Amino acid sequence: MTHTKTFKLVFLQILIIISTKSFSQIVDKHYNHKTAALELENVAKKISSGLPYNISPKLVQYMYENHEDFPKIPENSSSKNKMETLAPTYTYINLILKSQLIAPQDSISKKQAMLAATLGYQSIKIISLSNEFINSLDKDAYNYKTRVRGFNQGIKGLKQYLLGYTTMTFLENQNQNVDDILISNLKNFAPKILNEFPRDEKELTIQLLKSSIEGKNDIRLINEFNSFIESL
Length: 232
Fold this sequence. Notes:
This protein has helices at 3-27, 33-48, 57-65, 79-100, 110-135, 144-172, 179-194, 199-213, 222-231. By secondary structure, it is an all-alpha fold.
């Protein structure tokens, strides 16, 4: 065997070892809050730049299962510091979800369902913190009205999210394997989000959600929908 052939064979073996190791690392990858946050940001940046991307099902599952304390926020953080951590996470998940769900969506995957639910839990944190911030402001401050307008825009965005999630769950999705993920989480986070709304906005949103489904024909999950509305 010539030196050239020997070199090529050795090089090929090295490539096989490296590729096998890389594949194993991908398959067996385990996340913590830090690595999950970094990968989430990386995926979102690729989407924003129009680059090809792949979001790991394990990353989605990690965020979903750890939604109560993801992202990690240091204890005794100020409202401003909390928002500086929460807002990017919310934005990244929202961006990824929008890239995953192209309407009309009649078959939701488990990964998509967990992403949608994770955004709901992040929404609770965002609206709760926003309320805390607004209530701490001096109503006579020069920028108070501007802050309130921003808060109202946030309410509007959350109303659209709840409407989209509700219609996706009860009208569009036909994948029965994800019904429990979609419905159980909606019944958990939707009341908590709505309880952070001003009273009139809460009532208007409930009516909006009701009217989005009521009167439609052949609703597969009509009993579950009625139970959801009652939970609000």
